[in-house]
């Protein structure tokens, strides 16, 4: 389609033609203007190839892309706040949480638990799952709280077992005495340790002299060991001594913050980490990429450490200004632009910036502490750093090749299954001496109907044999444990409805 436009509107007209005809230039256009459009389109395609962008649509949606659940106009945002851990500074989860797990195991061993031989398994859990402390289970619930899948200890439960255990029971995160939501990467080591200890309790290997444990008491003991590991400070000291083993550098990130400052945005760092740890991690992650006359602190208008989130968003605590690199502090009642502070509250930050509510965007990795509370109490706009989507997106891209073949097989089975259902319905009606016929039955007698149904069953079994391994391979791209927890799928043709694409 071509839109005739006056000559002075030619550039706008060309954009319209490109949008209407697509970047591939397959347009049904004639005339001198159309020829120019085709030439420009070919040149655009050549440029994309040189930039190694084979598909503009795919390039827009990358593994490091931005995915919006609602619209956000950045022109309306005056200030952007950031968390630090797993947001501005991203850790290698296997290394960081692996060491947290090791320290937890050391403390459990001191308490008398037989943990020798246990190792950290980062593929066992993922953020978004929920621990059921009463039953020693790890569950996956949908957005309504209905439990869809579950593990007991490190063992996957069958769909039937999940129904038997939970029935219509739903997860209620308000019942903190029972349910624990894994909302951060820091929850990974906690959940792995707990699920392994559930196995120990079930196997009866916990010494009797430690007392009688149920699943809830076991979680308390494990949590105490993990909290002790963090309070002792050995883990953070190890990370500060060897940041290269734990931190994944991102050269683009410092320049992104500089671009935001150039765009007139006020930048704020709000972290629960203390100043010494924050300074070490930010210096290691940012300074190497910044101009020689800049340090990481120059990126931010206000810096708040030891913020004590989520209370930072809920109420007011005393604020202290850090006046020396050694961490010497003095009381402060009002934050100033360029200041470095400990404690305080989000309201103090708003007053110092003279920016409030939805004019502020806060970015973090903690679903509750960073996003929920800043939204509920302050009406800040929020964005979640969700690194798991990178693997999800890459899995979708890698499976694209055979996913179309899988869909075709599934569609074939749906058609065959529908015909089978119609033939069976015809037999059922005839047995009730009803004259109504289904379309598929035509004039076949009962014997031909039965023979046809047997043939269709054979076809569906053949399709099942092709579909099942493809589903398993597809699921393995999204869940590394699917290969070790293989489920046998039995498809009953006459009640067949659909097959999930992800195992």
Short overview:
By secondary structure, the chain is an alpha/beta fold.
What does this structure look like?
By secondary structure, the protein is of the alpha/beta class. It folds into four domains: 7-60, no CATH class; 75-89 and 248-388, HAD superfamily/HAD-like (Rossmann fold, 3-Layer(aba) Sandwich), CATH 3.40.50; 93-243, no CATH class; 399-495. Helix content is 45%, strand content 12%. Strands 12-11-13-10-9-1-14-15 form an eight-stranded mixed beta sheet, sandwiched between helices. A five-stranded antiparallel beta sheet has the order 6-5-4-3-7. Strand 14 (360-364), helix 13 and strand 15 (381-384) form a beta-alpha-beta unit. Helix 4 (93-111) packs across helix 6 (187-203). It is globular and about 95 Å long. It starts with 9 loop residues before the first helix and ends in a 25-residue tail after the last helix. 27% of the residues are buried. Residues 1-29 and 482-503 have low confidence and may be disordered.
